[in-house]
Amino acid sequence: MDASTPIHHHLDQYYTTTMKKIFAATSFFSTVLLLLASSLFIQGVEGTIGVNYGTIANNLPPPAKVAQFLLESTIINRVRLFDTESETIKAFAHTGIAVTVTVPNDQIPHLTKLSIAQQWLKIYIQPHVPATNIVRILVGNEVLSTANKLFISSLVPAMQTLHTALVGASLDRRIQVSTPHSLGILSSSSPPSTGKFRQGYDTHVLKPLLNFLRATNSPFLINPYPYFGYSADTVDFALFRPNSGVFDVNTKLTYTNMLDAQLDAVFSAMKLLDFPDIEIVIAETGWPSKGDSAQVAVDTESAALYNRNLMEHVTSGVGTPLMPKRTFETYIFALFNEDLKPGPTCERNFGLFQPDMTPVYNIGILRATARSSIPMNPTPEPPVTPVYEPPQKGAKRWCLPKTGAEVETLQSNIDYVCGLGFDCRAIQEGGPCFLPNTVRAHAAFAMNLYYQATERNDYDCDFKQTGSITDVNPSYGKCKY
């Protein structure tokens, strides 16, 4: 999606029509399961979930404040920018956050000349490296969907020339070059096994592009949006809700969500050109929290459900029917609601956060405390002497982390519980349970907080098999469990 265009995203008519036809016959379970689906535990998110940082608004906080917020208050460690604005890139210096920048479409023809590409690097990239962790340059955005012959014919040559300039600056091993596509590049997508690129673009543009990506070990970027392909009959399929699935008669595989179908249609098209080995990155996907009155499932609940289930799915390692056991680097659209975007109401309401950085809804990406991971210079933990209380019938029990539980998983436990809105102030700096300042100690408080607030069933302390129930009170000093 081009952040500068009036309408968020347009799928080609063929795609939308055929997707709706094949999914129309799908039957679905009751929406009573919504709360169960929305409470899915997010694990392994930190390395692969990013966010698109659009700025078409007049009320956004300064970039430095945004960068600090992402670093200290969220688990997001990847950001995609829609330009190369210097102040924004500089704001991410020394944060370690992986930054992707974008060359505007109208600059593409100029970058086919090596001297201009070299000058572009010197102006927009090299002053920020290595302080800012720039990992990828995107040449344009959804260029094939613009129907601009000059932009399209210049796309691959510009990518090649820019890569040559990166080699000359010894940055080619640090920074990849790619370009994102809408699903409009497909002429066929339903069922997924019939995925095919548009005739003409397939051999003249996409095959050379895929050759370049393979040679430079760079990914193919796609902007799949189930939101733009769903109908009232297929909303469960689009939102990852339980449903009976859609059967692909060619592969004998069943699809349980629309995103997998979209990704596999792209994979099939790539395979048809003999490029099944190239990594696919989800450059954009999301769901608006507000739309026009006639729209179905355009609300905060649906947006939260889509993005939470998206995170769970792409990081689970399950993959898709045609790409099993894969995870996908994924960028949610978008970081903020953007009040100056033209078009329908939904265009201004794809954000995870309001401009004041309060969440529009919760999907488990907020940290419990500022940088509550393992301290760089940890202080010795003070001895904790549990208060023993002999078990009695109906006596209180506590939920604590199991010995040997992975630190990353325990951090996810903290993020999940505190992200649900439970009061985690006790483990924030200055709180009675802040010390010892370790992930394990903070996870113990958070996991028990959740367990005590529920019905204290054994499964309320499961936390992906990292929790254990004890009858020994872990309270110490002023830290009361």
Distance between the termini: 47 Å
Poorly predicted runs are 2-47, 370-393
Number of helices: 12
State the helical fraction: 25-40%
The major pleated sheet works out as: 9 strands, parallel
Enumerate the strands of the largest sheet in spatial order, edge to edge or round the barrel. Answer: 5-4-3-2-1-13-12-9-6
Oligomer: single chain
Please indicate the percent range of residues in DSSP E strands (runs of 2 or more).
5-15%
Query: Which structural class matches the secondary elements?
Result: alpha/beta
Report the order of strands and helices: HHEHEHEHEHEEEEHEHEEHEHEEHHE
Shape: globular
Catalytic activity: Hydrolysis of (1->3)-beta-D-glucosidic linkages in (1->3)-beta-D-glucans
Family: Belongs to the glycosyl hydrolase 17 family.
Transmembrane segments: 22-42
Membrane topology: Lipid-anchor; GPI-anchor
What features would you describe in this structure?
The chain has helices at 13-23, 34-38, 63-73, 86-91, 114-124, 149-168, 201-216, 235-238, 258-272, 300-314, 407-419, 439-453, and strands at 49-53, 78-81, 98-103, 134-139, 176-178, 180-182, 186-188, 196-197, 220-223, 246-248, 253-255, 280-285, 330-333, 398-401, 467-470. With 481 residues, it is an alpha/beta fold. A hairpin with a 4-residue loop joins strand 10 (246-248) and strand 11. Helix 5 crosses helix 6 (149-168) and helix 11 crosses helix 12 (439-453). The longest helix is centred in the N-terminal third of the chain and has 20 residues, at 149-168. The two termini are 47 Å apart.
Considering the chains and any ligands shown, give keywords for the structure:
about 30% helix, 15 strands, about 475 residues, alpha/beta, single chain, two-stranded antiparallel sheet, nine-stranded parallel beta sheet
